[in-house]
Amino acid sequence: SLRITHYALRITINVMLKNFKIIILIIVLYISLPYISFAGEEEQIKIKAIRDTIEIKKTGAAEITEEIQIEDFNKKELCLPVNYIWVEIKSAVIKETGEALTCSIKTLEGTDYIYLNLDNKDVNEKTIQINFKDPAFLIWKNAGPGDFGIYTYKNEYRNSTRMVIEEYGMEVILPEGFIINSIVKSTPAFTGKDPEPPYSFKNLSDKSHIYIKTKNLSPFKVCSIEYSFVEKKNSFILPVASIIIMILFLVFFRDLVM
Predict the structure, then answer these.
(1) CA distances from 245 to 146, 250, 253 (A)
(2) pLDDT digits (tens, 9 = 90+) for 41-97
(3) Is 120 exposed, middle or buried (CB count within 10 Å of its CB: 0-12, 13-18, 19+)?
(4) Radius of gyration over alpha carbons of the chain, in Å?
(5) Whole-angstrom distance, CA of residue 188 vs CA of residue 224
(6) Rounded to the nearest 5°, which phi and psi values hold at 22?
(7) Strand-by-strand arrangement of the 208-217 sheet
(8) Is the pTM of this model over 0.85?
(9) What is d(CA 242, CA 239) in angstroms, rounded to the nearest whole number?
(10) Mean pLDDT, the chain, as a whole number?
(11) CA separation for the pair 234, 242 (Å, rounded)
C-alpha cells in the first residue's frame, strides 16, 4: 500500500508541475500579446511627437489642443490615445495646410481612441492638430481646498497605443486668479542623477503655466504631473503661516535651540 501511495503522489506532483508550467506560459503569452499582434503596425508608424496644451477655465472646463507629428505613414486611418473622459472634438486639421480631417472617438477592446480618417491626405512629416473641449476637466471638489486654501490636482497622459511616442509634452494653464504653489510629484520622476527636472512652471501676471515632458513613452506607460496651487488672494497665507510656525517653535523649544 505504501508503494501505491508513493506512486500516486509522484503522479499528482508531475501533473501539478505540468499545469503550473502551462499557467505560466499562458500568463507570458497574455502579457506579450499586444506587442506580438501589433508588431507590424509599430514598424510602419512612428509617432515622432505629441504635445498637449490644456487651458483650464474657472468652471473646471478645459480647451485642449493636441498636436501630433508622425513619420513613415501610409495608411488611410489612424488611432491615437484619448485621455479625457467627457471630451468633445471641435476640429481636426493638418496644421501646415489647413485641410480638415474626419475625426471621432471610437472604443476598441474596451479602450477609447481618437479615430482619424485621413481621406488619402498626406500627413508625413506634417502636424495633425486636434481641438477638444472637456466640460469637466478639473473636478474642483476633488482638488480641494485643503489647509491654507491649497488645491492639489494631477494630470496624466497614458499611451494606450502599441507605438512608442518619441517625445511627449504637456502644458497646463491654470484659470485666471490662481498661481502654482509647488510640484508634488511627476512621472518621470526627478532624481539626483538628472541634470534638470522633467517639469517646470511659471507664475505670470495673467495666468500660470505648468510644463512636463518625456522621451520614448512606451506602450501603456504614462506621463503625469501632480501640483498644488492657490488663489492669488490667499497666496500670502503660506509665507505668513511659515513665519508663525517658526516663531512658535522658537518660543516653545527655545531651551532645545540654546
Answers:
(1) 18, 9, 12
(2) 444 477 999 999 999 999 999 999 999 998 877 788 888 988 887 889 999 999 999
(3) exposed
(4) 26
(5) 7
(6) -65, -45
(7) 88-94, 127-134, 62-71, 46-56, 165-173, 208-217, 199-203
(8) no
(9) 5
(10) 81
(11) 14
